[in-house]
Amino acid sequence: MQTGILRLIFLGFACSLAYWQVPTIRVAANLVLTPVWVADASGKAFRNLKLEDFEIEENGIRIAAVRLGEPGEAPLELAMLFDTSGSVYSKFDLERQAATHFLSRTMRTGDSAFILSVANEPKILQDRTSSLDTALQAIARISPTTQATAFYNAVVKAARMLQEVERPDTRRAIIALSDGEDNRSIDNRLPDVLRELQTANSLFYSINPAGRTYSKSIISRRAQEGMEALAQQTGGASFIAERVEDLAEFYDRIADELQGQYLLGYYSPAKSGPGIYRPIVIKVRGRPDLQVKARPGYYPK
Predict the structure, then answer these.
(1) Cα separation of 3 and 261, whole Å?
(2) Which of 98, 88, 86, 83 is nearest to 211 (CA)?
(3) Which string of DSSP letters, residue by residue, matches the chain?
(4) pTM for this structure?
(5) How many domains does the chain have?
(6) How does pLDDT run across 254-282, given as a tens digit for each residue?
(7) Do 106 and 226 sit in the same domain of this protein?
(8) Which member of 18, 43, 69, 272 lies 3.0 to 4.6 Å from 263 by CB, making a disulfide possible if both were Cys?
(9) Is residue 1 domain-resident?
(10) Are residues 64 and 123 in the same domain?
(11) CATH number of the domain where residue 149 is located
(12) Beta bridge pairs of residue 171
């Protein structure tokens, strides 16, 4: 009896010892992935860069890059926003054609897209789909309205939808076709929208179909300045179409940028929580002639 008890005690001790001696496998939660677009002096995408070519600083601390995806290789999660309100009513057919061309050129196997409209409230016209045909059919069904514009609400909704997609090693981007004039959003203002985009790690691109007439109104100017701020602070771009025929050119420029982006990864040395913004600076070592565009910072998860 005593021998049996001693044996059980010994086995329990041995199992306990073995448990504590098993090495713990840790998953690095501080890996930061950010899309980076590099252009030469002529504005064309600069390719063939290697991991060691990039210099990264976070909060002023120099960090080595550990991962580099080839240009345009990382899958895209796209959210396309279409302003269907009264302010863009007259040009909508050509706008829809330009967007169709963009999506046909940009969306590849492994990519996904949401389609949303912007009017009194954001409306999901097509939930997340990896089918190009399904996304194009959703765009074809969009109809203009004479409603007001809840632009900020729509961008926030798109950012949250992208954030809910659990896919590592992807790029997220919102493409908004709008003049940015918001006369409907109550709960969301520009700082709120920027925070949502930064939290979702989403690029923001906008095309304003209003042309230079936007400058004649202080409301229109502020709306465009707001979209430019969102683009600058997320690593995207904002365009103003002088003519509706220019829309295709700007969509092409966005497509070129998305297809030329590297996905750069590094391990953050910061210990701060998710509510603390972390500024980052990315350069190409020894090449001041190259233009590097990336988000200037992020909120950790």
Answers:
(1) 69
(2) 88
(3) -HHHHHHHHHHHHHHHHHHHHSPPP---S-EEEEEEEEE-TTSPBP----GGGEEEEETTEEE-EEEEEPTTTS-EEEEEEEE-SGGGGGGHHHHHHHHHHHHHHH--TT-EEEEEEESSS-EEEEEEES-HHHHHHHHHT----S----HHHHHHHHHHHHHT---TT-EEEEEEES----SS-SS--HHHHHHHHHHTTEEEEEEETTGGGGGGSHHHHHHHHHHHHHHHHHT-EEEE-SSGGGHHHHHHHHHHHHHT-EEEEEE------TTS-EEEEEEETT-TTSEEE--SEE---
(4) 0.88
(5) 2
(6) 999 999 999 999 999 998 788 899 999 99
(7) yes
(8) 69
(9) no
(10) no
(11) 3.40.50.410
(12) 76
Range of the domain at 220: 76-253
pLDDT digits (tens, 9 = 90+) for 17-56: 333 333 333 335 689 999 999 999 999 999 999 999 999 9
Q: Is residue 57 part of a domain?
A: yes
92 and 187, same domain (yes or no): yes
Residues 180 and 289 reside in one and the same domain: no
**Do residue 41 and residue 164 come from a single domain?**
no
Do 56 and 80 belong together in one domain? no
Q: Are residues 179 and 85 in the same domain?
A: yes
In whole angstroms, give the CA distance from residue 238 to residue 206. Answer: 5
Confidence of residue 168 (pLDDT cuts 50, 70, 90): confident
Tokens 């995806």 correspond to: 69
